[in-house]
Amino acid sequence: MLLTIFLFVLGFALLIKGADFLVDGASFLAKKLKISLIVIGLTVVAFGTSTPELVVNIFASARGSSEIAIGNVLGSNIANILLILGLSAAIFPLLVKHNTVWKEVPLSVLAVLSLFVLANDFLIDKISPSILTRSEAIILLFFFIIFLYYTFSIAKNNDEQDKSKIIEYSISKSILRVILGLAFLVLGGKWVVDGAIDFARFFGVSETLIGLTIVAVGTSLPELATSTVAVFKKNSDIAVGNIVGSNIFNIFFVLGISGIIKPLSFNPAVNNFDIFVVLLASLLLFCAMFLGKKYNLERWQGAGLLILYFVYIGYLIYRG
After folding, report:
1. Are 71 and 205 in contact (CB under 8 A)?
2. Longest dimension (CA), the chain
3. Residue 162 — very low, low, confident or very high, per pLDDT cuts 50/70/90?
4. pTM of the entire predicted model
């Protein structure tokens, strides 16, 4: 068990460092190939913070651990809003863009509702068991393509994207960082999934509980780091946009890819509650924009989100 804990923690470290290496190396190579900074920001950098969720889910799906795959995505989305945005707002009030409030947050709500409809075969069609099939996973990926189209159309009118800084390396060092990043991600993802399954068996709890808590928070660490740094630099747009975009990415792309690798078993009795919490968190974020100072997430609202997160974790432990 001590070796499992060591590899589990080391796996998270490799996931985070691997994502960092991959983003840095790929961004500079893309710049050398004269790809615009807007495209780099919306693809390589934006995908980078969600790479740990993606890699963990690929391994979980390949091993048939649907509970970890679904729990990781739902748990990460809950942690992103209630924990990370709550903590960020508690540090410094966050100003949210008009587009984020009226387009991106509603898109994140649509993502949750889409997952609810596609995965609840028994509830909607009275077909048992409930499974997120490959065809339904492809539908999620189609939604993701629409989201990408929307994001690119917004970016074309946003000159601030061109001010982003890319660390420069030599071509050989950039390629090495990409290779190391991919290697770290693969190795780290395997150790995290193996460790999560071993923990569930050792402690006699469900893989869903491990996926919703330890794995979800661990894979959300890049979002936590990005948003916290952005808050201290008073770049609240990045802090909020990073979280909302990551939540959309997690459902449409990460679960889409996971479901294509292997159809995911869905437990309505357990997972529907977690979907409800993701939906509630997204709606609370939207409503918070009109309580107090308009389009601002204030400190007291951030504290409220944090309290709700710890209540949710307490309920998971009780349920698990």
Report:
1. no
2. 58
3. very low
4. 0.85
